[in-house]
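hey can u check if this looks right to u? its 347 residues, i copy pasted from the old doc so theres a chance i mangled smth
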Amino acid sequence: MTSSIPGPRDLPGSRYDTSTYWGRVRHSMDIADPSTLFVSNAGLENAKQLVSGFKHGRLKEMNPDLWRAKKVIDSTLHPDTGKPVLLPFRMSCFVISNLVVTAGMLTPGLSTVGTIGWQVTNQSLNVAINASNANKSSPLSYSTLASSYFIAVSASCSVAVGLNSLVPRLRRLSPTLRTTLGRLVPFAAVASAGALNVFLMRAEEIRRGIDVYPVTKPKSISLDKMGQDAEDSEPSSQSQSLGKSKKAARLAVSETALSRVINATPIMVLPPLVLVQLQRRSKWLQARPRMVLPLNLGLILTTSIFALPLALAVFPQRERVKAGRLERQFVDEMGGDEHEVEFNRGI
């Protein structure tokens, strides 16, 4: 994010009002925009120069080029390290990275081996995304990373295989309902293991705490003529940490785990429900079983494009809370429990 670029002057946090849900949705659409994946190293360096120029006063006001530069940096650089997140694990690549994996998990009539294989693949991708986007003030050891991965894989495979064997035995339910429940088994496995994955991968943050910063306000920021509201600025990379907070870490990790469940819900519930109805009622599809796969991919892609910004926007990435909600040291540092502090929640 642009907060990782040094300078005495802060950029507005967003061109949208991120204190509102729909403002965060529009901001998340920028972060998840796949077009930023095609920005070259030279383009990234140019974006950094533009942002640096604004922070040092060489550019007097926000303009379309500067907003574009901010969008590129926010979707590419980690807010704590200032280094690019590996391309497949950026939020702007989330839809593409998850498309094939999700389609595999939602394949009708998947065998036990296929179920386990796709669950392992999905959890491997989740671990990579979690590790790449986690708060870096409390880094993970490789041993913790490995143990968290194997526990998450075991959990997802156990849930998926267990429910797949349980659902057909529910004889009191109609065949249609059993089929529908069977299609929702991957969602149950992904949602439960995904939330567990976040807690396991970021347990060190909960144990040690994460950095908390004072809320800063923008200094002499002129907005572009389009009239966007950007009252909140990003914390400067030079802002000094007030210390590490375990309460902030618990809040950050809990919100991230919940957002993963929220994100998985439409992507892994709507496509299988729509597909099972089409397979039952569409004579055209019944006569063309080979079209099930491309139709499944299309449903997943369409749902993912719309669902990702809605899920990312549920909680802000940089969370603001009153000092009174955290440890006593932050109340003392800020001079009262009503003053706001902030921290990077992670994605």
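The radius of gyration is 22 Å.
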